[in-house]
């Protein structure tokens, strides 16, 4: 039977991140992906033009209908944006189903994807329900109120800090650390560390990598894999997606940035 996974996230009109990335990833990994849209984001790689959050009641209605009508086996959250949306989601989340929380805070271009006051709701309401939190370096620094990690030891320390405070497993993504090898750190709720290493892929500009990774992990959890194996396979899938990414040639000049380069790569 095809497992059902559910993504609760924002919509990316460029289809490289958000709900669109989650749908593509879910289907690629043999799942049936349901979606609950939280925000409509007008963006292309490198630029966010606008964000329109949906009414929290509409978000809740989508979630309730999905849970009522389908045998959801795993859930991921991405862009939740506001405390109202986050509370509406948490109120309806079922217990006993794996939940991957991707704390989407800032776009690659630097634009805020979350209201400041949402951070407290993440920590108070969402993380206690999660099976895994998947922060990147910036998100990890924000969530732990610590300096940005510049070494593997600092990444490990921050992962342990967040795992201890939330009593939840943490996948600290180290892709932006320097070096020829990318190292991601999975810290269990009790502080045990597991490292995942793969060669760094150069000459590529990514968009939506975190969304793809968290949805891939969710898909493998929906298939019934234990968390460490789901993380390992999700990382392998994401690395392969980056390695085999498309290179799009833009057909017109973009006015929003002076140093935009032709030939941005996007993952599938």
Could you characterize the architecture of this molecule?
The chain has a domain at 4-135 and 206-228 and 239-266: UDP-N-acetylmuramoyl-L-alanine:D-glutamate ligase, CATH 3.40.1190.20. It is globular, with a radius of gyration of 17 Å. The strands form two sheets. The chain has a nine-stranded mixed β-sheet. A two-stranded antiparallel sheet has the order 10-11. Helix 3 (83-92) links the parallel strand 4 and strand 5. With 268 residues, it is an alpha/beta fold. It has eight helices and eleven strands.
Give a short summary of the structure.
This protein has 268 residues and is of the alpha/beta class. The chain has a domain at 4-135 and 206-228 and 239-266: 3-Layer(aba) Sandwich (UDP-N-acetylmuramoyl-L-alanine:D-glutamate ligase), CATH 3.40.1190. It has helices at residues 18-28, 56-69, 83-92, 118-126, 137-144, 152-166, 209-222, 227-243, and strands spanning 4-12, 32-44, 47-53, 72-77, 99-101, 132-133, 169-172, 181-187, 193-199, 246-247, 265-266.
Task: Give the arrangement of secondary structure elements.
Elements: E1 4-12, H1 18-28, E2 32-44, E3 47-53, H2 56-69, E4 72-77, H3 83-92, E5 99-101, H4 118-126, E6 132-133, H5 137-144, H6 152-166, E7 169-172, E8 181-187, E9 193-199, H7 209-222, H8 227-243, E10 246-247, E11 265-266
Parallel strand pairs: 1-2, 1-4, 4-5, 5-6, 6-7
Antiparallel strand pairs: 2-3, 7-8, 8-9, 10-11
């Amino acid at each position: 039977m095809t497992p059902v996974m559910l993504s609760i996230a924002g919509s990316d009109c460029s289809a490289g991140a958000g709900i669109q990335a989650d749908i593509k990833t879910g289907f690629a990994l043999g799942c049936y992906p349901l979606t609950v849209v939280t925000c409509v984001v007008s963006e292309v790689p490198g630029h966010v033009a606008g964000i329109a959050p949906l009414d929290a009641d509409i978000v809740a209605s989508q979630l309730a209908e999905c849970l009522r009508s389908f045998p959801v086996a795993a859930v991921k959250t991405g862009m939740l944006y506001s405390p109202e949306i986050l509370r509406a989601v948490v109120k309806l989340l079922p217990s006993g189903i794996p939940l991957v929380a991707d704390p989407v805070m800032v776009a690659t271009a630097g634009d805020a994807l979350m209201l400041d006051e949402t951070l407290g709701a993440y920590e108070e309401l969402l993380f206690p329900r999660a099976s895994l939190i998947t922060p990147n370096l910036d998100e990890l620094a924000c969530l732990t109120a610590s300096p940005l990690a510049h070494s593997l030891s600092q990444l490990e320390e921050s992962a342990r800090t967040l795992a201890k405070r939330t009593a939840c497993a943490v996948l600290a993504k180290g892709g932006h650390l320097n070096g020829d090898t990318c190292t991601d750190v999975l810290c269990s709720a009790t502080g045990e560390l597991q490292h995942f290493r793969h060669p760094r892929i150069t000459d590529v500009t990514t968009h939506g990598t975190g969304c793809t990774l968290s949805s891939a992990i969710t898909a493998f959890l929906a298939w019934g894999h234990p968390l460490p194996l789901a993380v390992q396979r999700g990382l392998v899938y994401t690395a392969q997606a980056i390695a085999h990414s498309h290179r799009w040639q833009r057909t017109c000049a973009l006015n929003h940035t002076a140093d935009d380069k032709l030939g941005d790569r996007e993952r599938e």
